[in-house]
From TrEMBL:
Matching InterPro entries: SAM/pointed_sf
Organism listed in the record: Gigaspora rosea
Name of the molecule in the record: SAM domain-containing protein
């Protein structure tokens, strides 16, 4: 199981699954608050938002405002009531945990929020991930092979009913090898963190892994063998909330690269997601696959097949991270 994100930053607010919405918006500045309110479809006019802007109302102030205070700043009676009722609502409305999203209906609802009409992960628009080609003798690939072969010699063949902890052993080896490669190529301090808490405006919870660069969340990875759909819907929500917090904390630090990547994996199958302003995209119809069979320890053909599949996965993960970091040779598209 996994998620991609770096040193500690205010991006990750320490909150529990019992956090309320008012605590989640307290760090929003005026513009951030206005965008938050617009996403809630309260039926307010731009002139109403201009009053909030003029009065410099931020997220820390907003929950304490009453109808009388809204009226005193010049808001008409109707909008004042709407905002006053909303402030009361967010004080008691709990942030929903990612883990509570499990059903096909949940996926349908989340896809609808993303502007997608559909009921399965196959309905999500597809994209071709960036990839960064690595040489056959690259030291990070050698590192990955050493780690994986060591795992195979101890854990033996990965079976269909093996638990998530065993699968994590392989996922971590691949993620760490990809990060090792990216750090060598870019010279930038990219780090991986397990069980990172990500709290946005509507949801909260922990992701399996995060890969970060400074305060920016680069990618989130989730995985589960027996319910990929469940992990897809959770990963989409994690990406949505992480994107909100990225913008709140550091603004548009990556310029035109204002998007975030996700990974959903079973260890054997790897799906990639992209959450951007223009929409959500994934590789649900074309996952990368790798088998972890102890026969690769003795059979040279099996070992070569394992190496080639690991290399392909590392190239895509590295390509996504380098694409976000953006100051090395341009990544090339993955072969169809």
């Amino acid at each position: 199981m996994s998620s991609l994100y770096m040193p500690f930053s205010p991006f990750f607010v320490s909150q529990t699954e019992e956090s309320t919405m008012d605590s989640a918006i307290k760090e929003l500045d005026t513009e951030g608050l206005i965008q938050f309110l617009k996403r809630k479809d309260l039926g307010l006019k731009e002139t109403n938002y201009e009053i909030l802007r003029k009065e410099e109302i931020s997220g820390s102030i907003f929950p304490n405002l009453t109808e009388a205070k809204f009226r005193s700043m010049g808001l008409p009676f109707g909008p004042a009531i709407i905002l006053a009722e909303f402030t009361e609502k967010i004080k008691s409305q709990k942030l929903k945990a990612y883990s509570s999203y499990k059903t096909g209906k949940d996926l349908k609802d989340v896809l609808k929020e993303c502007g997608i009409i559909g009921t399965s992960i196959g309905d999500i628009p597809q994209f071709t991930p960036e990839t960064y080609k690595i040489s056959e003798n690259d030291e990070s690939l050698k590192l990955c092979m050493t780690l994986i072969k060591t795992k195979l010699s101890i854990l033996e063949t990965l079976l269909a009913d093996d638990n998530e902890r065993e699968r994590c052993e392989y996922v971590e080896s691949i993620l760490d090898s990809a990060i090792h490669f990216v750090k060598r190529i870019t010279g930038k301090k990219v780090t991986r963190h397990p069980q990172t808490e990500v709290t946005g405006e509507d949801n909260t919870g922990r992701v399996d892994y995060s890969i970060k660069y400074h305060s920016e969340l680069i990618c989130i990875t989730e995985g589960k063998f027996w319910n990929i759909t469940e992990r897809f819907v959770q990963n989409l929500l994690q990406l949505q909330n992480a994107s909100q917090v990225n913008k709140r904390i550091i603004g548009n630090a990556f310029g035109e690269k204002d998007y975030i990547y996700g990974i959903v994996t079973t260890a054997e199958a790897w799906y990639f997601l992209k959450y951007a302003n223009e929409g959500v995209f994934c590789t649900s119809k074309n996952p990368l696959k790798v088998d972890f069979n102890e026969s690769a320890l003795e059979n040279s053909n099996e070992e070569l097949n394992l190496r080639n599949n690991l290399k392909r996965i590392i190239e895509v993960i590295a390509g996504l991270l380098i694409d976000k970091l953006g100051d090395t040779e341009p990544p090339v598209k993955m072969d169809e």
